[in-house]
Amino acid sequence: MAKVKYRYNSETLTYEKVRLGVKDYMRIIGRYSLFALVISLISIAVFTYYYESPKEVGLRREIEFLEAQLGQMQNDIDTLAMVASTLSKQDDEVYRSIFGVSRYPDHLRNPGVGGADRYKNIKGYESSEAIIETKKKISLLQRQLVAQSRSMEELFQLASNKAAMMQSIPAIQPVSNKDLTQVASGFGQRIHPIYKIPKMHWGIDFTAPTGTEIYATGNGTIRTVEKLNSGFGYHVVIAHGSGYETLYAHMSKILVRQGQKVKRGQVIGLVGNTGTSVGPHLHYEVMKNGEKVNPAHYFYNDLTPQQYTELLERASIANQSFD
After folding, report:
1. Residue 175 · residue 311 · CB < 8 Å
2. How far apart are alpha carbons 282 and 322 in whole angstroms?
3. What is the pLDDT of residues 86-123, one digit of tens each?
4. 18, 84, 187, 285: which could form a disulfide with 294 (CB 3.0–4.6 Å)?
5. Distance (Å, rounded) from C-alpha 183 to C-alpha 135?
6. HEC profile for 218-240?
7. How far is CA 219 from CA 254, 262, 301, in A?
8. For residues 244 and 83, which has the higher predicted lDDT (pLDDT)?
9. Stated pTM of the model
């Protein structure tokens, strides 16, 4: 930058030398500084708009992680809710029916929640809605589990006085079926394999190779042993007491005799294809006070809630029965 400047004098028609003072230098420095500041601010704005700082990158990853975890938690809560629902259904339709007591009151199983807005302190955020919905599901699940716990306490008290009866009630699957793939036809309207018309199927068909072991599903006494060429073929009926009976049909071999006492899990015969049957299988029925009921509701001793739900779905498929 030049230290000496010239100014034109219109009176003398000459250029005169002008020396800059401190104020002039300050003005020049100020102008350059302002220009540099503007350029810097523009550069920072552009960089910030197009590029994330390490802190921003970390925060963004943290948010993505938390959102993924929240979604997983919601899925886990839904799974737990399904299990709780299955337990409630078994409680009302099976366990309480066994003891002859009424259903657990709905107002206790699904209690309401009153009062002021419980979630006002977490409103106003971008994720508020998802968090509030999750909290509502957790709160409902907690109330349902508390009610189920109280219901089970009542049933445990009843069971402690009826241990012998509990051993007699049908409570396992009559053939080994841990993967649930043996269920071929369930309880309900099914296509008859011979007549090809819809007909009520009063039991569950388990497909299995000839010679597969068949188990008594509860303690009892062998009431019927028959060997027919039609109908149920080689079949056995067990009287369990408390109004329960079970039927095991189409056996290839019977390993018990009439009047014999049997225990739950004891082998009573082998799977076959006798009588009116289109393939090796076991036809299994459960009777309660003379009325045929869905056997799937009595497999609770050897199935988890998830397996129980899956078995009900498999057994409900409207297909062709084997007998």
Report:
1. no
2. 9
3. 777 777 777 776 666 777 777 777 766 655 577 777 77
4. 187
5. 39
6. CCEEEEEEEECCCCCCEEEEEEE
7. 17, 6, 14
8. 244
9. 0.49
Q: 183-315: which CATH number, 2.40.30.30, 3.40.50.300, 3.40.190.10, 2.70.70.10? A: 2.70.70.10
Would you say 225 and 236 are in contact if contact means Cβ atoms under 8 Å apart?
A: yes
The angle, 0 to 180 degrees and rounded to 10, between the axes of the packed helices 54-90 and 128-160 is 30
Query: Residue 243 and residue 293: Cα distance in Å, rounded?
Result: 12
pLDDT of residue 144: 79
Tokens 């049909």, residue located: 249
Distance CA 6, CA 22 (A): 17
The span from the CA of 310 to the CA of 304, in Å, is 10
Choose between 207 and 98: higher pLDDT: 207
